[in-house]
Amino acid sequence: MRIDRATTDRSPQLNSVLTSSTFLKTTLSGLLMGSLLIGCKSSTPKAASAPEPVILRLGDKTFTTNDFFQSFTKNQFNDDSTRRTDIREYFNLYTNLKLKVLAAQQEGRDTTEGFREELATYHKQLAQSYLNDKVFIDNLAAEAYERMKEEVNASHILFAVPEDATPADTLAAYQAALDVRKRLLNGEDFEKLARQYSKDATVAANGGNLGYLTVFQIVYPVETAAYTTPTGGVSMPVRSRSGYHLVKVLDRRSNRGKVKVAHILVRVSPSGNDAGQQAAKERIDAVYGRLQKGESFEALAREFSDDRESRSTGGVLPIFGTGQMVQPFEEAAYSLSRPGSYSKPFLTNYGWHVVRLLERQSLEPFETLAPTLRQKVITDTRAEVVRNTLVQRLRRDYPVTESPAVLTKTLALADSSLTKGKWKAPASLDAAINQKPIVLINKKPYTANQFLEFVARRQQPKPAGSSPAVMMERLFRRFEDDRLIEQEETNLDKKYPEFRALMNDIRDGVLLSQVMEANVWEKSLTDSLGQRAFYDQHKDKYQYKQRAVATVLVAGNNALMKQATEMLEKSPYQLRRSVETLAYGVNQSALTAKQRESLFDLLVIMTKNPDYLVEVSGSAETAERDTISANRIRNVVNFLTANRVPLLRIMEKDYGKFRPGTKGAQSRQVTFQLFSSAKKDVEKVLNAQTPGAVTLSEGLFTRGTNPYLDAVEWKPGTTVLQRDGKVIRVTIDRIEAPRAKTFQEARGAVINDYQAQLEKQWLDRLRQQFPVQVNEEEVRRLIK
C-alpha cells in the first residue's frame, strides 16, 4: 500500500580477464559514460590533404598513424590511471584488438540483427549528450535545487480547457481566469471562489489547497508560479495541458528533509457504519497499548497491520519527503524527532495509523543530488521545455519548407473520430496529396502519407471540448519536430568527428566482447577438464610460501597497548562502550516508552555490528519481590529478540538483590555490557576515542607483507617491540610450512592463466589468418 497524496548478458566474469579487456572497459564503459558529459561541439571541415601514412596492415585491412594515435591518446593510461602506457606496449594491444575485430567481422557478427540493435541502442544513448543543451539542463537542475531548499504552501483554481481546444474556447478560459483573479485581488475569499470555479476534482475536499509542495510534484508551469509568486499574492493565469491556473501562495518554510518510518494501519471503510469505525478505533488503541507495554513494533505490524505491502517488512515504508503522503500522515511522521519514537493513533482517509520514526535525512548538497536532478529534468514536465529548446536550435540549423496546399488538404482530413482516438486515414487519398511531400526538412521530403501514419499511431482520446482541427495541427508540429530531431541524430556522425570516433570504438567494443566471450571467456569458465589439465601442467606456479598465523597490534604508547592487551585477553572481548542504564520504579518490570526509546539505540548498535554480544544484567532493591530482577531481564530480552537480535547474541546475568556497589534505588536497574567475537571491534572502540591510536592486523602472513612481523623470529609466541615511537605486540600462533595449493585454492588464478593461454593460442591463429605488417618507421617516429 502507498499512502500517496492524491494529485494530478553478459557473463559476470568479464571483468576478471586479460590485458586486452582494457579496450572493452574503455570503449563500452568509459567512452559511452564519459561522452555523456560532452556538450554539442562544432567542427570545421578538413581541407583536402595527402593520404595519411599507414602504420599497420592486417591482411588487406590498413590502419593509419592518425587512427592509432587517436586511440592511444584516449587510452594512454593503464587501469590505475597513474602510469602512462608505453606506445610500443599499447601498439601491441591495439594490434590484438584489431585482429579480434577482424575475426568478428569475418564471422559476420557485425551483420546480425542483435548487433545492429545493440549498436543502435548505444547510438541513441550517446546521441542524447549531443542533442540536449547541457548548459540549459544544468541551469534547470540548479534552479530545481534552489527551489528544494524551500517548501511552498499553495492553493490553485483550475479553469479547465483542453490542450486542443479552439482558440475561442482557450481565450474564454483565460479571460475567466483574469476576471476571478481581479476579484481575488479585491479581497474576495479564495476558497469560496475555488469551490465555485475550479474544475480540479479535489477542490470539494481541499478548497483548492495543495498543501506544502516542493519541486517535481506538480507540473512545471504551476510549480514556477508557486515559487515566483510572493507570499499572499496571486499569480497571473498559468497554462498547463489541463487549462489555466491561478496560484495563491499561503506560506513558505525551509525544507524539512526526508523521513523513513514504519506504520501499523487499521483500515476504516469510507462507507462503514459507526460500529465498524468504533471497532477500528478500539483495535488501534489495543495495538498502541501493547506497544506501551514494550512489545515489538515490528511484530505487532506483522500481526495486525492491514497494509499488505508493508506488513511483511514490519511496517517499513519507503523514505519520503514533503508532499508525498497524505497530510495527517506526513505531519505525524515529521512530528517525531527521535528514531525509535512513535506517534499516538491518528486518522487518515485510509484508516487509523501508528507511525514509528526510523530515520531522518536532511537535504543533501547539490553536488550529490546533481546527477539525479539532471535525470529528473529530462523526464518530468520540464522535458518539454528541454525538447522545445532543442527544436528551436534545429530549426535554425535545418531549412524547413512546408507545402501549403498539401498541408491544408491533409489537415482537413481530421474529424470527430480523432479526438476519440479512433481516426483512420481514408482508404484512398486524393491525388493532390497522395505520396506528395507535405514538408521538406534539409531538402529531404516527407509525404502526407507518412504524416497520416504518424497520426494513426500517436492519436489518443481527448477530453470533451477538444477540436479535431487543432489536434491535427498539433500532431503535425510534433511530426515535424520529430523529423528534425531524427535528421540531427542521423547527421551526428558527419557533424561531430568525436561522435563518429566514439561510435567506432563502441562498435569495436561490442564485437570484441562477442568474440572474446565465444573464444576465451566462456570456454575458460566452463571447461573444467581444461582447467584441471592446465593446473596439473603448471603446479609449480601455484604455491604457498611459508606463512605465519599471527596478530600484530600497534599502539601509540604503553598505556594504550596495556588497555588493548587487556581487552584482547579473553574472547568474547569486552568492549568499553557505554549503553544507557534502565532505571525502574519499585516492583516495576514492564518497559516504559522512554525505556524502549533507550533500547532502540542498543538495537542500532547491535544491527550495525554483527559480531557484537550484549550482556543484560538485572538487579532489585531488598524490599522488592524476589522475581522482579529476573522479570526485568526477561522483558528486555523479549524486546531485543522481537526486534531481530538473536538469543545467541544475548547473555543474561541476574544479580537479584545483591548487585555489588549499589544500594537502595540504585539497585532497581538493568545494565548492559557489550562484547565482541571479533578483534577488529576492539580496535574500533579504542580508535573511537583517539582515531588511529591502535591498529590491529591478523591472519595468514607471508614474509615481506608486514614489517613488524618480519622483525621477529618466526616461531610461536609473543614479542613486544619499540619502533618509530610506537609499541608493537606481535603474536604468532603457528607457522605453516610451504606447500602446493590445491586445485580449489588455486582455481581463480588457474582460470585467469588458462584464459591467457586460450587468448594467446587464438591470437596466434589470427596472425596466421591476417598476416601482420608493421610500419616500424612510423612507430619509431611516434616513440620519439
Task: Report the oligomer.
Answer: single chain
Would you identify the CATH architecture of the domain at 150-254? Answer: Roll
Got a strand count? 25
CATH class of the domain at 150-254: Alpha Beta
**Which whole number gives the mean pLDDT?**
90
Distance between the termini: 68 Å
- Give the CA-based shape: flat
Percent in strands: 15-25%
**What portion of residues is helical?**
40-55%
The total count of helices amounts to 28
CATH topology of the domain at 150-254: Chitinase A, domain 3
Query: What structural class do helix, strand and pairing data support?
Result: alpha+beta
Low-pLDDT parts are 1-27, 29-48
Radius of gyration, rounded?
Answer: 36 Å
Q: Largest sheet at a glance?
A: 5 strands, mixed
How would you characterize this protein structure?
By secondary structure, this protein is of the alpha+beta class. Among the domains are: about 150-255, Roll (Chitinase A, domain 3); about 260-360, Roll (Chitinase A, domain 3), CATH 3.10.50.40; about 395-495, no CATH class; about 570-675, 2-Layer Sandwich (60s Ribosomal Protein L30, Chain: A), CATH 3.30.1330. The protein is built from 28 helices and 25 strands. Strands 16, 17, 18, 19 and 20 form a five-stranded mixed β-sheet that branches. A four-stranded antiparallel β-sheet has the order 4-3-6-5, with helices on both faces. Strands 8-7-10-9 form a four-stranded antiparallel β-sheet. Helix 3 packs across helix 20 (about 495-525), helix 5 (about 135-150) packs across helix 14 and helix 15 crosses helix 19 (about 470-495). It starts with 20 loop residues before the first helix and ends with a helix. The relative contact order is 0.11.
